[in-house]
Fold these 3 entries.
Entry 1:
Amino acid sequence: MRRFTLSELRRYDGKEGRPAYVAFQGKVYDVSSSFLWRGGRHQAMHNAGEDLTEALRSAPHGPELLTRFPVVGELVPEETA
């Protein structure tokens, strides 16, 4: 499984044809196929290329929605990449 640091994950921002990836609890999900992530933004509050672990705590839905998307890797600390 591919390993992403946060700085690498930021490259997958869903803009200019790039894939839209987000991280949650150490897993990296490809949300590119979702119309809710069009252009790398979700509900004008969240950006692709970010770790959403904290943000999902206050979301109106649970993290189970992410299970609809493929896991493409794992988020690792910068120094272990």
Entry 2:
Amino acid sequence: MKRRIYLCEGETEQRLVKALIEGELIAPGQQRVFNTAQNDVKKMLRRWGWGPVKFVLVVDADTGPYDMSSRLAENLKTLEKSHKPKLVLQCDNLEDELGRCCSITGDSLYWAFNASSASEFKKKFIKVRQEQLLEKLNRCGFDFDRLWQRCCEGNMLNSGLRDYLWKKNS
């Protein structure tokens, strides 16, 4: 049986992935904060070995630019040698992504978490008790089927890498 490891760009994405796992909306697995757009995945692989591991990379597509020579592309190539990684692209920041999933604006999402800015939202999002996070999002009208589904056209992915990712993740 393959282990599943979610590599999340930041702590807020990791908390969301953990809540989605606990809510049985995504497959179970370990969650790690590991920015695959900035860090070398080879070092991380030594920790988990080359055994049967399914990696899911949660990447913020607006922090590029990413092209075929970027760290992200190199990491994908490395993982493909013995794993079939899945790439989840977050086109904007997490609060914008959640706002789309909840059909509310960023300010309304801030209000739901008693925050007045993006940095305060992230702090409060992280502090919400894990078992209450999904419940809090559901009260905002959270629709899981809309999460990370937006096309990242025009973001920081260059067309060569976008075509490469499309072929690999289809």
Entry 3:
Amino acid sequence: MQLQLITALVVIFLIVMFAVQNAVSVSVVFFLWRVDASLAVVIAACFGLGALIGALVTVPTMLRERISISRLRKQVDMLRTENDDLRATKKDTPPAPYGF
């Protein structure tokens, strides 16, 4: 717990130092849109936008995998039940005589 707290404080300190050292104002032009902002804010916004796009791209794959896992778990449960039924049936039947 203390290691996580120390790590979080170090990361926050590095982010603050980055923001302070990159306080230069930059102009971002995208088609007809123009924004003047701090370099640190622009970099943070681009990082956040990239993380959001990455998350949106992976969501369909994760949903497909969860559906597949659910279907396979149901199939495993069904096969376990069938296996238990077959074992119970095998115990109930007398053994076959030798020679037949």
